[in-house]
């Protein structure tokens, strides 16, 4: 440690430079990805993208309207399954749960959220696609719900725990039954935080591709029946990106731009709700 | 309110009972609510149990048929009914470990820059940006990887490596573009935001007193980082890196799109390879036999167990830091 002061100062500046270089090395590829999505996406996006189904192989034009519709429908389905389990499960953890049981359930949720998303697709396949003898949007919704549940559960629980106990006691002291207190007072005061969690979960599943590969499967045409194979925006981006046609690549870029825009809009809204919570 | 009540009492008792749900009448709203929330909370346990049960059950035919040979053989022939997962295991391990070796130093450097070096406002700008990047779907990384990065690797990086380092076995062969190298790069780009944001949280948990003590002894900023901050956050940073590893092993879409999907076991990073999630993604929807599906299920089971162990380890490490930080504050 008997280095001269100059030497130590030089070393200090050198290492600061290295750290700056690391930050740049982290940000440059990500900046490039954005640049390409914007450049290719904006030039490929047209009104047709939002109103048409993909054109037959080799023909120019077409859009991903069916994929966007399918994604929206499957996300709605996943929310119908996932939100009650996530939110009511979180109420159990924060309001009723004994410590041992809660730890086990939290651990299970952590395991679920750490499981690669393709596994949920395999499970939904064996549970729904095989017995029902066909790929379906419903199976896609179930696979997405399995990803959604642990996210909603953990964020909702965090938010409910932050509600002061005095609020619950005040409500109970007025003679309000416990279940009404939980729903109308505890959940209500944590609402903006809970909404943040829900939006982040929706943003997450909106971009998931792997769980849909062998559940919803994808569809070149309009598919409104949840018991039939269904198109999804991420699936279309995937299959168009690896296809050898220039036109399809352009559609994939346009799809990527739409997907990223929707996801960022969701995260920004979520942040807005999060802020509201802090301000209130 | 009053008229309502009188109305109720006027009615025959049996009719008023009918208007309430039978269970609620018996138990009261609170009990129903309690049972309902308990049911939903335990359904999460049920989902996990069902998942493990299905994965194990469906893998059994392959486990019975091949035993340990499954992970030791590189024979994957759906027509003949021979299945060995070695090329996929090899591809998964090599791509994620090498991606992690590249990503971890970069992430630590970036996290240190954000928390310790950058002027306040710059750090506050970069941090949420990194968080946002961690949320980009993997199919979009894959799209960029296959349409922008792989052609660039093929035309620029790989010919350069072959020309100057072709004598090293890691860089021999032809420039394909889609390759192990492409998978390593795309995984590195994907896990960097995750490791950076967790490392940043770990660094923020280092008590101010630790830094101040080092500064009071006359340490420069780098010396403060080296003697006070890094040793304190060591296990947490390791946890962040392992969490990144878990993410990299399970990553499906982006890798499938750039790795070339050829079951090679080759030292060369330029040759196409295959990973466990990729083979599932490519073959599971069109299996030719029960045994084929079962073999893919077994790969899925291995994948699930590996990520489970890796994630548990990471959480334990991160948790130990946040706990000791809380202990130190109290």
Describe it.
The complex is a heterodimer of chains A (280) and B (330). Chain A has 280 residues and is mostly helical. Chain A folds into two domains: 5-44; 51-279, MetI-like fold. Chain A has eleven helices and no strands. Chain B has helices at residues 2-10, 13-19, 22-27, 29-66, 69-72, 86-117, 120-133, 138-165, 180-204, 208-216, 221-250, 253-258, 276-283, 290-329; strands spanning 76-77, 82-83. Chain B has 330 residues and is mainly alpha-helical. The radius of gyration of chain B is 27 Å and the shape is globular. Chain B has 14 helices and two strands. The model of chain B is unreliable at 1-20 (pLDDT under 50). A two-stranded antiparallel ribbon of chain B has the order 1-2. Chains A and B meet through helix 1, helix 3, helix 4, helix 5 and helix 6 of A and helix 4, helix 6, helix 7, helix 8 and helix 9 of B. Chain A: Pfam families: BPD_transp_1.
Oligomeric description of these chains: heterodimer
Helix content of chain B: over 70%
Looking at this structure, what is the CATH superfamily of the largest domain in chain A? MetI-like
The CATH topology name of the largest domain in chain A reads: MetI-like fold
Specify the number of helices of chain B. 14
* CATH arch. level architecture of the largest domain in chain A: Orthogonal Bundle
Radius of gyration of chain B: 27 Å
List the helices and strands and how they pair.
The complex is a heterodimer of chains A (280) and B (330).
Chain A: H1 5-44, H2 47-51, H3 65-96, H4 99-114, H5 117-129, H6 137-162, H7 165-173, H8 178-189, H9 191-206, H10 233-241, H11 246-279
Helix pairs in contact in A: 1-11, 3-6, 3-9, 3-10, 4-6, 5-6, 6-9, 7-8, 9-11, 10-11
Chain B: H1 2-10, H2 13-19, H3 22-27, H4 29-66, H5 69-72, E1 76-77, E2 82-83, H6 86-117, H7 120-133, H8 138-165, H9 180-204, H10 208-216, H11 221-250, H12 253-258, H13 276-283, H14 290-329
Antiparallel strand pairs in B: 1-2
Helix pairs in contact in B: 4-14, 6-7, 6-9, 6-11, 6-13, 7-9, 9-11, 10-11, 11-14, 13-14
Protein name (chain A): Phosphate transport system permease protein PstA
Family (chain A): Belongs to the binding-protein-dependent transport system permease family. CysTW subfamily.
Transmembrane segments (chain A): 12-38, 68-93, 105-128, 134-153, 185-206, 252-273
């Amino acid at each position: 440690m008997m280095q001269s002061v100059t030497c130590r100062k030089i070393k200090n500046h050198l290492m600061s430079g290295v750290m700056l270089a690391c930050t740049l090395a982290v940000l440059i590829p990500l900046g490039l990805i954005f640049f390409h999505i914007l450049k290719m996406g904006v030039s490929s996006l047209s009104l047709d993208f939002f109103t048409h189904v993909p054109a037959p192989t080799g023909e120019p034009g077409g859009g991903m309207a069916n994929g966007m519709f399918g994604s929206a429908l499957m996300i709605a389905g996943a929310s119908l399954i996932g939100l009650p389990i996530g939110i009511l499960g979180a109420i159990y953890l924060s309001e009723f749960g004994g410590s041992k049981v809660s730890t086990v359930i939290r651990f299970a949720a952590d395991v679920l959220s750490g499981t690669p998303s393709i596994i949920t697709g395999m499970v939904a396949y064996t549970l729904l696609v095989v017995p029902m003898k066909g790929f379906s949007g419903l199976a896609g919704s179930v696979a997405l719900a399995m990803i959604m549940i642990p996210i909603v559960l953990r964020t909702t629980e965090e938010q409910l725990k932050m509600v002061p106990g005095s609020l619950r006691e005040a409500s109970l002291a007025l003679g309000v039954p416990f279940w009404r207190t939980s729903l109308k007072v505890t959940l209500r005061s944590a609402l903006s935080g809970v909404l943040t969690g829900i939006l982040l979960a929706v943003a997450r599943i909106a971009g998931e591709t792997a769980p849909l590969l062998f559940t919803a499967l994808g569809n070149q045409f309009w598919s409104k029946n949840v018991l039939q194979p269904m198109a999804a925006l991420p699936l279309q981006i995937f299959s168009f990106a690896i296809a050898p046609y220039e036109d399809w690549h352009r559609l994939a870029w346009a799809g990527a731009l739409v997907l990223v825009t929707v996801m960022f809009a969701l995260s920004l809204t979520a942040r807005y709700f999060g802020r509201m919570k802090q301000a209130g | 309110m009053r008229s309502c009540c009188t109305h109720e009492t006027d009615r025959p008792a049996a009719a008023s009972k009918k208007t309430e749900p039978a269970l609620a009448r018996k138990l009261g709203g609170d009990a129903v609510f309690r049972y309902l929330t308990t049911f939903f909370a335990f359904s999460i346990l049920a989902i996990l149990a069902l998942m493990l049960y299905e994965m194990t059950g469906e893998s059994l035919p392959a486990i019975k048929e091949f035993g340990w040979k499954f992970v030791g053989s590189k024979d994957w022939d759906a027509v003949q009914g021979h299945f060995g997962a070695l090329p996929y295991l090899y591809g998964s391990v090599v791509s994620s470990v090498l991606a992690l070796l590249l990503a971890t130093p970069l992430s630590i450097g970036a996290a240190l820059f954000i928390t310790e070096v950058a002027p306040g406002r710059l750090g506050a700008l970069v941090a949420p940006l990194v968080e946002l990047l961690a949320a980009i779907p993997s199919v979009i990384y894959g799209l960029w990887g296959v349409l922008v990065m792989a052609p660039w690797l093929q035309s620029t990086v790989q010919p350069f490596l072959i020309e100057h380092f072709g004598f090293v076995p890691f860089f021999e062969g032809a420039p394909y573009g889609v390759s192990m190298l492409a998978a390593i790069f795309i995984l590195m780009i994907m896990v960097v935001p995750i490791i950076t944001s967790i490392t940043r949280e770990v660094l923020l948990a280092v008590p101010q007193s630790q830094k101040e003590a080092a500064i009071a002894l006359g340490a420069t900023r780098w010396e403060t980082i080296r003697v006070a901050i890094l040793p304190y956050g060591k296990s947490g940073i390791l946890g962040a890196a392992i969490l990144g590893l878990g993410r990299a092993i399970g990553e499906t879409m982006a890798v499938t799109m750039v790795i070339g999907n050829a079951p090679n076991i080759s030292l060369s990073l330029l040759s196409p390879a295959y990973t466990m999630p990729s083979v599932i993604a490519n073959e599971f929807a069109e299996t030719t036999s029960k045994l084929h599906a079962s073999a893919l299920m077994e790969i899925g089971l291995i994948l699930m167990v590996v990520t489970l162990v890796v994630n548990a380890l990471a959480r334990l490490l991160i948790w130990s830091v946040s706990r000791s930080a809380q202990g130190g504050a109290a």
